[in-house]
User: Which sequence fits this backbone?
């Protein structure tokens, strides 16, 4: 196989990697905020289950979680997972896994805010929701952006776990090409793709950080 053909194969499979990345972010970031709120709830019937969920997601391998989400319907309800369910299982597993990490990041950012800001907003007549959305959340985003960017960069690399469910993402394609050609060139080429993608992601976060520089601490 010519080098250009190999790059084309990798670029095509990169579409699967990119889809996993985007879908995970779309669902895990807002879910992470919900998880953070649940974790900080004074109601133990909410905070304890959320804490257990976070502990499980952070304490077990993502690969195992992928397997559980995919085969879970069969063992629980005797529903055989079809081929079309593979991508859905990947989306679900990645979203709930990263929501736990993002939830803890959001929680640390929210709890780091001075209590005086809440009290000042209350004096000015803001409701709790208005205080959080207009005053607290923008500052929290500024504080947690470096930690979120680290998790997002990790997510780019973790998309390679899609091979667990036999989904042909870029890394799986690179391994198949490397085995077929008995060469490590496809793997190195895939590594370059991952690096370029991570470089772009890091630059995007740098832009966001610069735009939020008016929040000085």
Assistant:
């Amino acid at each position: 196989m010519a080098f250009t053909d190999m790059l084309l194969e990798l670029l095509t499979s990169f579409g699967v990697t990119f889809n996993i990345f985007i879908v995970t972010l779309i669902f895990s970031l807002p879910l992470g905020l919900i998880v953070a709120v649940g974790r900080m709830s004074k109601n133990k019937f909410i905070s304890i289950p959320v804490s257990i969920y976070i502990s499980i997601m952070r304490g077990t391998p993502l690969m195992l979680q992928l397997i559980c989400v995919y085969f879970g319907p069969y063992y629980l309800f005797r529903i055989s997972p079809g081929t079309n369910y593979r991508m859905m299982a990947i989306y679900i597993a990645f979203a709930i896994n990263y929501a736990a990490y993002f939830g803890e990041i959001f929680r640390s950012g929210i709890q780091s805010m001075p209590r005086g800001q809440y009290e000042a907003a209350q004096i000015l007549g803001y409701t709790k929701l208005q205080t959080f959305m207009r005053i607290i959340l923008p500052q929290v985003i500024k504080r947690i952006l470096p930690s979120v960017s680290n998790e997002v960069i990790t997510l780019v690399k973790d998309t390679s776990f899609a091979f667990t469910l036999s989904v042909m993402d870029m890394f799986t394609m690179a391994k198949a090409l490397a085995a077929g050609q008995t060469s490590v060139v496809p793997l190195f080429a895939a590594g370059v793709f991952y690096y370029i993608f991570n470089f772009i992601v890091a630059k995007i976060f740098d832009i966001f950080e610069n735009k939020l520089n008016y929040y000085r601490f």
